[in-house]
Amino acid sequence: MPLILLVGTTSGTAEVVADEVSKRLTAHSIVNRIVRMERAALPMFTTRKHFLICTSTYGRGDVPDNSKPFYHSLVEARPDLSDVFYGVIGLGDANFSRTFNGGGQRFDNIFAELGAKRIGERMKHDRNSGIRPEQMALEWLENWLIEYDKLRFGSIAERAVRTHQMG
Predict the structure, then answer these.
(1) If phi over 0 gives left and psi between -120 and 50 gives alpha, with beta otherwise, what is residue 4?
(2) Across the 167 residues of the chain, what is the mean pLDDT of every consecutive 10-residue run?
């Protein structure tokens, strides 16, 4: 079952980030697929259970235009996502402190409200940080992959991590 990278973008930056993350996931032997959110639909949750949301923030802390229909369908239909696991890569601009990373926060909130379980911490990139978002995402992904591997492999991954740390 592939890991689905859901991409919400206005200017294309989140898509660039998702492309780099996808390459790293593939190198880590994780089958994955990028799905722009305008193509995402609720029925995918019946067969797909692992998601990585990569989204920018638009306007006053809103989700990008291409992801609005998908986001609103989650809010209105309220599907049961209790068997879904997800991570969030959020992109934003800290100059807008009250709405900073609002797109990622909104998706994080709705997935959690619907019962999904987040893997790791939400990544919050600030476009003014001087760090390219894809660089930050790849650094964040290293820790996220440890948590994701625990989900995929259970105690085997935990023993391997402990053995590696002791090693």
Answers:
(1) beta
(2) 93 94 96 96 95 89 91 97 96 72 92 97 88 94 93 64 54
